[in-house]
Design goal:
Layout lengths: L1 E6 L4 H12 L6 E8 L3 H11 L3 E4 L5 H7 L6 E4 L1 H9 L4 E4 L7 H8 L4 E4 L2 H17 L3 E4 L2 H9 L8 E8 L9 H4 L4 H4 L9 H9 L1 H14 L6 E5 L5 E7 L4 E5 L5 H9 L13 H4 L13 H12 L3 H17 L7 H16 L9 H27 L1
Parallel strand pairs: 1-2, 1-5, 2-3, 3-4, 5-6, 6-7, 8-9
Antiparallel strand pairs: 8-10, 10-11
Helix pairs in contact: 2-3, 4-5, 5-6, 6-11, 6-15, 11-14, 15-16, 15-17, 16-17
Bound molecules: nicotinamide-adenine-dinucleotide and magnesium ion.
Organism: Gemmobacter fulvus
GO biological process, one term: isopentenyl diphosphate biosynthetic process, methylerythritol 4-phosphate pathway involved in terpenoid biosynthetic process
Pathway: Isoprenoid biosynthesis; isopentenyl diphosphate biosynthesis via DXP pathway; isopentenyl diphosphate from 1-deoxy-D-xylulose 5-phosphate: step 1/6
Length: 396
């Protein structure tokens, strides 16, 4: 039986993965090693019972008593805290879903790769913060990383049977998020609730807001560079409001391979779960006559400073991705908390990168995970200072 684990089981990607695992036979078809979650221990315990997991892990120590109670009599072990997440990642498994949100997903993924596992990677922050290290770690241990982000799954599928050297360009599609048609002055004053009204995709709160600001696409541009090894100027972004083409690969002979499908993450997750085979998936089929047309437009750089920042990060490389992601996470915290406005998020990231590039060598290649985590920590502090300064100015 295939041994599987899932990090971030209780999130949006986690729930979709759980749905597919149950449809494909559940505990009768998979041996579940570990499931991890955060504060929603009731749901975590329910999933662990359904899949008869060996161990359930909550990221938070204070949630452990509740998790223990919820698992009473099941024989499933309950553990808690960041160290417990690593212990869970060290339990050998054949397939591991990495679906924690944010840089917190980095270390568990690293640990999992050491055991030569196949890592289904939804946690794009891992590649943004530590792409070269992560890819090298996978190569060293004969482990495979399969992309779960819909764009990267699309590119991966468009590359089957092709030579990466024949690739001329990669076109990442972007829905534009909830605020794509708003005038610029109104965009700056958008609220959290407004940024959460995504037109096409149902996702976790953080990535939904990142879609509206295009920080999600900025992360994905960097993710593309790190995963597929193409040059930054080979990566384009196009706004495609229907979200039906998930991305495209252009070859040197001018041919474009596009991947189309319903906006349902179970497609990309199911592809990674069943790779290299394809299995029946419960996703809607496209009716082209009913759709009528697909539309595209170029992203406006003034609207989306995140895309410009991603280009700067790729030019700098080294630790710039770690700083960028950390600053983005803090800026998002402050926006959600009401301290800063929607447009201020890019200003916080910009200010953080500027401050760090004056004092630190952002371009230095990290020697190990510790260097990445140290820069992550530093950038969070710096971004906090920038966010508070901007927030104070706004209030005053
Ligand atoms: P989510 O917020 O719905 O779920 C996040 C999961 O991580 C939860 O299980 C939560 O308990 C856990 N978690 C949160 N903080 C943690 C911490 N500090 N330590 C340990 N666990 C923690 O997020 P999501 O939308 O499912 O996204 C998960 C990842 O997948 C992100 O990296 C996101 O960018 C990526 N992704 C998501 C989608 C989508 O459709 N939701 C699409 C593409 C990529
Ligand atoms: Mg995506």
């Amino acid at each position: 039986m295939r041994r599987i684990s899932m990090f971030g089981a209780t999130g949006s990607i986690g729930e979709s993965t759980f749905d597919l695992l149950m449809r494909q036979g559940g505990a009768a078809a998979f041996h579940t090693v570990a499931l991890t979650g955060g504060r929603n221990v009731a749901r975590l315990a329910e999933m662990a019972r359904a899949l008869r997991a060996e161990v359930a892990v909550t990221a938070y120590d204070d949630c452990l008593p509740d998790l223990r109670t919820a698992l009473a009599g099941s024989g499933i072990a309950a553990i808690a805290g960041p160290q417990a997440l690593l212990e869970a990642a060290d339990r050998p498994a054949d397939w591991i879903m990495s679906a924690i949100v944010g840089a917190a997903g980095l270390a568990p993924g690293f640990h999992a790769l050491r055991h030569g596992t196949t890592l289904a990677l939804a946690n794009k922050e891992s590649l943004v913060t530590a792409g070269p290290l992560l890819m090298a770690e996978a190569a060293r241990h004969g482990a495979r990383i399969l992309p779960v982000d819909s764009e990267h799954s699309a590119i991966f599928q468009a590359l089957v049977g092709e030579d990466i050297a024949a690739v001329e360009r990669i076109v990442l599609t972007a829905s534009g998020g909830a605020l794509r048609d708003w005038p610029l002055d109104r965009l700056a004053r958008a609220t959290v609730a407004e940024a959460l009204a995504h037109p096409n995709w149902a996702m976790g709160q953080r990535i939904t807001i990142d879609s509206a600001s295009m920080f999600n696409k900025a992360l994905e541009v960097i993710e593309t560079r790190e995963y597929f090894g193409v040059a930054p100027d080979q990566i384009e972004v196009i706004i495609h409001p229907e979200s039906l083409i998930h991305s495209m690969v252009g070859y040197r002979d001018g041919a474009m391979m596009a991947h189309l499908g319903a906006a349902d993450m179970r497609h990309a997750i199911g592809y990674a779960l069943n790779w290299p085979e394809r299995a029946d998936l419960p996703v809607a089929r496209l009716d082209f006559a009913a759709l009528g047309q697909l539309t595209f437009r170029a992203p406006d750089e003034a609207r989306y400073p995140a895309l410009r920042l991603a280009r700067e990060v790729m030019a700098t490389r080294g630790l710039a991705g770690a700083a960028f992601n950390a600053a983005k996470e803090i800026a998002l915290d402050h926006f959600i908390g009401g301290g800063i406005g929607f447009a201020d998020m890019a200003a916080v990231v910009d200010a953080t990168l500027a401050a760090l590039s004056h004092r630190n060598s952002l371009g230095n290649a990290p020697m190990g995970l510790e260097d990445v985590l140290a820069m992550d920590h530093l950038a969070r502090q710096e971004a906090g200072i920038a966010a508070r300064a901007i927030g104070t100015r706004r209030a005053g």
